[in-house]
C-alpha cells in the first residue's frame, strides 16, 4: 500500500472469485472475497485493519526451569512460535476473540490452555507461567498364554477422555502412542499425558486383538502384562455348479449376538476369493460361526454353522455357489391410505453378504428390490425419511423371488398452544418433538398467529416436546402417543437467566485449567461458560430453578460447588467460587 493506504492489483480474470488478504505488523490480519468485473475496470475495495492483540507467557518444567524450543500455537492461526531459552514467548497480531493455545515439546506432555480471551479494553494478555510436565511412559510385556514373549506385536494407545495427542505437530505425533514389541516381548509407549485414561490395543497375526482401558495415574511405573489369546481360522475355496473356482466371491463368518439371539452382521469377519477361488479368514474368536458366501451374479450360499477352536484352523472348506440359489425381496412401501411412499429407506436383517445390497431406497412408485439375501427368517423394515414413520415385518426368505409389501402406520396428531411468560400467544416459533430416549427429532412445526400448533402423523411412542427462542425456552413436556390424538399441550416460555461470578484464590496458571458449569437434576441439564484470564465467568441460557455451580479442575482435582435459585423475579445471580489447590500426582 502507498502512504495513503491505496493499492492496485492487476492481471485478474473477470468473474473469478479471489481471496484478498492484508497483513501489516502491529495489526490483526484481514481478508475478504472479491470478484473482478469487466476487463480494465477497477473494483474499489476498502479494508479496515484493527490493532492486533498480543499473547505472552513463560513456560517452565516441573522444577521451575525455563524450557526453550517449545512449539506454541493458537487455533485460529496457521503458524506457531517457539519459546526462547528463557522460556518466554509472544504471539503477535491476533484478532480479538477467544483462543485455544497449545504447547508441545518432545519428552513433555502436551499442554492445552482453553478459552484464552481478550477483554474489550485490553490488547495485551500475559498468561503468566505455564508448567510442562514430563511425559508419562506406558511400558510392559506381551506374551502368549504359555508365557512365551511375542516379538513384533504392534501396540497403540487411543485417549478415551481427551485426545490431547492430536495437538502435537505432525512431525512429532508419529513418535507418540505407538510401539512394537522387541525380541523379549517388551514395549515402551512414550509421550503420554500423566493421569490420562487411554485405550491400549495390541495386534499380532495369529492372535486375537487385545484391548483394555488403562489409567496412567493408577498404572504408574508398574509394567503392564499383556497376554494374547490365539485366534482361530477358516480356509477353503468357493466353486460353481461344475466345480469351477469362483473369483471375487465374498465370504463371511457371522457370529451369534447373545443379546439379540440373531446372526449379527457387525460381529463378522470377511474375505474375498482370489483367482483360484481360495479364501482365508484369520484371527477369529473361537466358538460357533455361520459361514456364508455371495457373488452378485450367482446369489448366496449358506454353508451353515462351524465350530472354531483356539489356535486351530478349519481347512479345506468347499462352498458351492449355484445360480438358482439367488434370493431377492421385492415389493412396495405404502402409506395407510395405500399411496406409494417414495424415497423411503428399506433394509433387511440379517444383512446381505454382498456389501450395500441389504438396504435400498424406494423409487417414485414406492418400489424396492433387495438382492443377495440369505434364505431363512429375516426382518425387513421401512422408514419414511420425511416423517420418520416406520414399519417392520418378519418374513421367511425363500430361494428365488420373494414379494413383500410394507404399509406404514398413519400416526396421530399432537396439538396445543405456545404462550409467553404472561400467558399471551407466541407465534412464529419452532415447536420440536423428539423421541423421549435418543433425542432424535421426529416432527417440527411453526406456531400459528394464535400460538396454536399441530404436529401430524406422529407414530405411537414416548416423546418430549418444547419450543425455543433467543431469550428463553419452554421446559420439556412429555407426550405419550397410543393410538389416538394428543391435544391441549401447553408450552409456556420462560426467560433465560444467567449466573456470573469469579474464581477467587486461583493463580493465572490455575485458571487455565478450570471449567465452570451449572447443573440441575430435574430435568437433567448442564451448561458451561467461559472464564477470562482474571477468573471472571458468565453462564447464560439458564431457566428458572435450582442450579449447582461448580469449578472443575481439569487436572483431576476436586470441584467446589454452590447452589443458587433463579426465579421469574430474579433471573441473575452472582456466585464467587473459592479455588482449592490440589496436588496432581505425576508418574
Q: Beta-strand percentage?
A: over 45%
Low-confidence stretches: 159-176, 258-267
What percentage of residues falls in helices of 4 or more residues?
Answer: under 10%
Largest sheet: 6 strands, antiparallel
Radius of gyration: 32 Å
The global form is globular
Summed over residues and divided by their number, the pLDDT gives a mean of 82
State the end-to-end CA separation. 55 Å
**Content-based structural category:** mainly beta
How many strands? Answer: 48
Brief summary:
The protein is mainly beta. The chain contains three helices and 48 strands.
How does this model look, in words?
With 587 residues, this protein is an all-beta fold. The protein is 2% helix and 51% strand. Strands 33, 34, 36, 37, 38 and 40 form a six-stranded antiparallel β-sheet that branches. Strands 5-4-7-8 form a four-stranded antiparallel β-sheet, with no helix packed on it. A four-stranded antiparallel β-sheet has the order 12-11-14-15. A hairpin with a 6-residue loop joins strand 7 and strand 8 (111-117). The protein is globular, with a radius of gyration of 32 Å. The protein starts with 17 loop residues before the first strand and ends in a 9-residue tail after the last strand.
Topology overview:
Layout: E1 18-22, E2 30-34, E3 53-60, E4 71-74, E5 80-82, E6 88-94, E7 98-104, E8 111-117, E9 124-131, E10 136-143, E11 154-159, H1 170-173, E12 178-180, E13 186-192, E14 197-203, E15 210-215, H2 216-219, E16 224-227, E17 232-239, E18 250-257, E19 262-272, E20 278-284, E21 287-295, E22 299-308, E23 313-320, E24 327-334, E25 344-349, E26 359-361, E27 367-371, E28 376-384, E29 390-397, E30 400-403, E31 406-407, E32 412-419, E33 430-435, E34 441-446, E35 452-458, E36 461-469, E37 472-473, E38 477-481, E39 486-492, E40 494-495, E41 497-504, H3 508-511, E42 514-520, E43 525-529, E44 536-542, E45 545-553, E46 560-566, E47 572-574, E48 577-578
Amino acid at each position: 500500500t502507498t502512504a495513503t493506504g491505496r493499492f492496485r492489483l492487476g492481471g485478474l480474470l473477470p468473474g473469478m472469485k479471489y481471496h484478498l488478504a492484508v497483513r501489516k505488523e502491529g495489526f490483526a490480519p484481514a481478508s475478504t472475497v472479491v470478484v473482478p468485473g469487466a476487463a480494465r475496470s477497477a473494483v474499489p475495495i476498502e479494508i479496515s485493519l484493527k490493532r492486533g492483540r498480543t499473547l505472552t507467557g513463560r513456560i517452565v518444567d516441573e522444577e521451575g526451569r525455563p524450557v526453550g524450543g517449545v512449539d506454541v500455537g493458537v487455533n485460529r492461526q496457521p503458524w506457531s512460535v517457539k519459546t526462547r531459552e528463557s522460556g518466554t514467548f509472544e504471539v503477535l497480531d491476533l484478532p480479538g476473540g477467544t483462543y485455544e493455545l497449545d504447547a508441545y515439546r518432545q519428552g513433555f506432555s502436551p499442554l492445552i490452555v482453553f478459552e484464552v480471551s481478550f477483554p474489550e479494553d485490553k490488547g495485551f494478555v500475559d498468561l503468566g507461567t505455564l508448567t510442562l510436565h514430563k511425559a508419562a511412559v506406558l511400558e510392559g510385556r506381551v506374551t502368549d498364554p504359555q508365557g512365551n514373549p511375542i516379538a513384533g506385536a504392534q501396540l497403540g494407545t487411543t485417549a478415551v477422555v481427551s485426545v490431547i495427542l492430536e495437538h502435537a505437530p505432525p512431525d512429532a505425533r508419529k513418535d507418540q502412542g505407538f510401539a512394537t514389541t522387541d525380541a523379549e516381548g517388551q514395549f515402551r509407549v512414550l509421550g503420554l499425558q500423566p493421569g490420562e485414561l487411554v485405550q491400549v490395543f495390541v495386534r499380532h497375526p495369529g492372535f486375537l486383538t487385545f484391548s483394555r482401558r488403562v489409567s496412567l495415574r493408577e498404572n504408574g511405573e508398574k509394567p503392564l502384562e499383556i497376554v494374547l489369546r490365539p485366534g482361530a481360522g477358516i480356509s477353503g475355496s468357493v466353486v460353481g455348479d461344475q466345480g469351477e473356482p469362483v473369483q471375487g466371491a465374498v465370504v463371511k463368518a457371522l457370529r451369534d449376538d447373545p443379546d439379540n439371539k440373531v446372526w449379527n452382521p457387525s460381529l463378522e469377519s470377511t474375505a474375498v476369493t482370489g483367482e483360484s477361488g481360495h479364501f482365508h479368514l484369520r484371527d477369529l474368536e473361537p466358538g460357533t460361526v455361520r459361514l456364508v458366501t455371495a457373488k452378485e451374479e450367482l446369489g448366496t450360499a449358506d454353508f451353515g454353522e462351524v465350530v472354531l477352536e483356539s489356535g486351530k484352523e478349519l481347512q479345506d472348506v468347499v462352498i458351492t455357489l449355484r445360480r438358482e440359489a439367488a434370493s431377492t425381496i421385492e415389493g412396495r412401501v405404502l402409506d395407510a391410505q395405500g399411496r406409494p411412499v417414495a424415497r423411503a429407506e428399506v433394509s433387511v436383517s440379517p444383512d446381505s453378504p454382498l456389501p450395500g445390497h441389504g438396504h435400498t431406497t424406494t423409487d417414485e412408485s414406492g418400489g424396492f428390490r433387495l438382492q443377495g439375501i440369505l434364505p431363512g427368517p429375516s426382518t425387513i423394515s421401512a422408514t419414511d425419511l420425511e416423517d420418520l414413520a416406520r414399519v417392520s415385518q418378519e418374513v421367511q426368505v425363500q430361494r428365488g423371488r420373494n414379494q413383500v409389501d410394507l404399509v406404514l402406520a398413519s400416526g396421530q396428531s399432537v396439538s396445543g398452544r405456545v404462550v409467553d411468560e404472561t400467558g399471551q400467544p407466541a407465534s412464529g416459533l419452532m415447536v420440536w418433538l423428539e423421541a423421549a430416549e435418543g433425542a432424535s427429532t421426529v416432527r417440527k412445526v411453526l406456531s400459528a398467529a394464535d400460538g396454536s400448533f399441530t404436529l401430524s402423523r406422529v407414530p405411537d411412542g414416548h416423546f418430549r416436546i418444547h419450543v425455543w427462542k433467543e431469550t428463553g425456552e419452554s421446559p420439556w413436556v412429555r407426550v405419550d402417543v397410543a393410538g389416538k390424538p394428543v391435544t391441549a399441550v401447553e408450552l409456556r416460555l420462560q426467560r433465560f437467566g444467567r449466573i456470573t461470578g469469579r474464581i477467587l484464590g486461583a493463580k493465572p496458571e490455575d485458571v487455565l485449567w478450570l471449567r465452570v458449569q451449572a447443573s440441575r437434576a430435574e430435568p437433567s441439564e448442564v451448561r458451561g461458560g467461559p472464564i477470562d484470564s482474571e477468573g471472571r465467568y458468565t453462564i447464560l441460557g439458564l431457566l428458572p430453578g435450582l442450579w449447582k455451580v461448580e469449578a472443575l479442575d481439569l487436572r483431576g482435582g476436586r470441584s467446589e460447588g454452590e447452589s443458587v435459585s433463579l426465579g421469574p423475579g430474579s433471573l441473575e445471580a452472582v456466585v464467587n467460587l473459592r479455588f482449592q489447590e490440589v496436588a496432581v500426582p505425576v508418574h
